[in-house]
C-alpha cells in the first residue's frame, strides 16, 4: 500500500501537546456512613453523539436549526437537575467532530495549546461530571486528541516532550484502547467519583452521604479499521467484554459502589467477537455493571415504538430501558435528547446498592408536545460567540459556482446531483496520481464511489441542499460531511458487483403482488453506506423484487458486460476501504493508494479548478436505474415536502408526492415511486 506525500491543497496543521493521563483513582476511602435502610435516587444524565453541535445552528445551510444543539439540551439538564438533586451528567463520546465549527478548530485554524474546544467550553459550563471517548474522537489524529483532551499520549506520532494543554474540566476515561509502545491504556481506564448525595434515612429524615460511582468507557474496536491511517502501529484495542471483566473487579476493590459503563456502541447479539462494533449486549452480561449509557447508533432508547432490530432482541426491554436487566439509555444524537436513568438506591449497611425494580429510564427530547422547542441557554452562545463567528466567516468563502441545485432529497431514487461532483473530484485525484506515480496501474479504468451522507435520518432538514449560485466552503462540507481521507482500491468485476450488492441493501425487498403500501427504503442500512457510481461508462440496474445479494443486474462497462476478472481502480475513503460498513472484500487488503488528503479538500480543489459547475457536466451521469416491474400496490418513501420539482429537474419522472404530511409527526412528505417506468 502506498502512502502519499502531503499535498498542499489546504493548510492542515495539527498541533499536539499533552500530558500523562491522570491516575484512574486515588486510594480507596470508605464512603460516608448512612444507616442501613436509607434510600435515595441518583440520576444519571446522558448526552451522546453531540458531534460538536454546540449551538442550534446549521453551518452548512447558514441558518438556525432549533432541533439540535447542546445549548438546548442544557434546558433539559436544568430540568432534570431540579427534579433529581442527586445527579451526574455524563457524556458518551463522538463529541469533538461533526460540524464546520469542529473542522475549523481542528484543521483550518488549529486550536492553540492554551485554548479549549468550543464544545468542551460548553460542557465545562454545564459542569459535566465525566465523559467517554467515541470513534469520531480519533478522526483528527492522536496528536490533536492528545492536545484537546489535555492528555499526553505515549505513542508514536505524539511529541511526549510537549506540555499538557488545556482540556475539559471533567475526567475522561477509556478502557479498551492501548498504546503499542507501553501496553497501557491511552486514557485512564476508569474514574471513581465521590458523589455527595442527600438520602432519606429509615426514619424518614434527611441523611447526607457519599456514594462512590465508578465510570468506565469503551470505544468501538473497529476504530482500528476506520482510522487506520492514524492508529495502525500506534494503538491497539481489546474487546468490550474482556476489558470490562478485567477492570470492574478492580473498580470494586477500589471502593466503587456503583459501576456505570459509558460505552460508545449499540446492541448486537451476533456471536461475540473482541472486534465487534456494537458489543453492549455482551457488556450488559458482565457481572457488576449497574447501568449502561450507550450511543454510536444515533437512535433513541428506550422507545416503545422502535422497530430498530437492536432494540428488539431477546432480553432487551425497549419500554423500560433494560438490556438483560441492566438499566440502559441511548440519547439519540446532536443534543436532540437527554438520557435520564433514575437509579433507585438503598443502603444495605455496608454500601449503596441499586434497586432495579424501582429504577426508571427515559430519553427526554428538546422538542415539546406542541412541536416547539425548549429555549436555549443563552450563556452557551455567549461563551462560544467568537468561535461561532469565525466559523461562519470561514464557511462563506466562495470557491466556485453552480448552475443547478445539488441535493439528496431524491438520492434514494436516483438523483446524483449532489454525488457526481464528489465522484469526479475523487476519481480525478486518483487518476492523476496513478498516471504520475503508479505506471503498473496506468491502464486500469478509474471509477469512484460516493454516497448521499444526508438523507433525512436526523430529521426533515437533514438533507444536502446546495442552491444554484456561488459554491462556498460550507457547501463543500454539506456535499461531503466527514473528514475522511481519499483511498484507492483495486477490485475485479466480481468484487465490484459485490460492492454494489451491499449498497443495494439500502432497499427493502418489494413484493409485486402486495396491494398495501410498501416502504422502499431499509432504514437499518444508512444512506452513507449506499455507495453510488456516477460514470457514463458504467450501467447497471437494481432489482428490488429480488432478495439482497441478487439485485444487481446488467452491469456493463463501456457497453460490454463486466468480466469477472476485469480490474478497476476505485476511489473511495479510508472508512470504506478499511472495512467500514462491512462491504465484502473491503478490509484494507485492496488498498493501493492511501492519501493523507481529506476528501472534502479534494472536492474544494476540484470546484476551485472547474470554477463553474453545470448539470450536464457535473450532475447528470446516473449509472443505475431500478429494474422495471409492475406492482399491485404503491411503493413509497419519505422526503422533505414540496421538492418534487428537484426530482423532475434531475430527470426522475416516476415519482409523485402522495401526501404533504406522511402522518408520522416529523414533517416528512410521502412520495410514491412507480417502478414500472
From TrEMBL:
UniProt keyword terms in alphabetical order: Hydrolase, Nucleotide-binding, Signal
Record's keyword annotation contains Nuclease: no
InterPro entries per record: 5'-Nucleotdase_C (IPR008334), 5'-Nucleotdase_C_sf (IPR036907), 5'-Nucleotdase_CS (IPR006146), 5_nucleotidase/apyrase (IPR006179), Calcineurin-like_PHP (IPR004843), Metallo-depent_PP-like (IPR029052)
Calcineurin-like phosphoesterase domain: residues covered: 46-299
Signal peptide: 1-23
PROSITE patterns documented for this protein: 5_NUCLEOTIDASE_1, PROKAR_LIPOPROTEIN
Domain 5'-Nucleotidase C-terminal: 462-586
Pfam families (UniProt xref): 5_nucleotid_C, Metallophos
Keyword Protein biosynthesis applies: no
PANTHER family: 2',3'-CYCLIC-NUCLEOTIDE 2'-PHOSPHODIESTERASE_3'-NUCLEOTIDASE (PTHR11575:SF6), 5'-NUCLEOTIDASE-RELATED (PTHR11575)
Family classification: Belongs to the 5'-nucleotidase family.
Protein's name in the database: Bifunctional 2',3'-cyclic-nucleotide 2'-phosphodiesterase/3'-nucleotidase
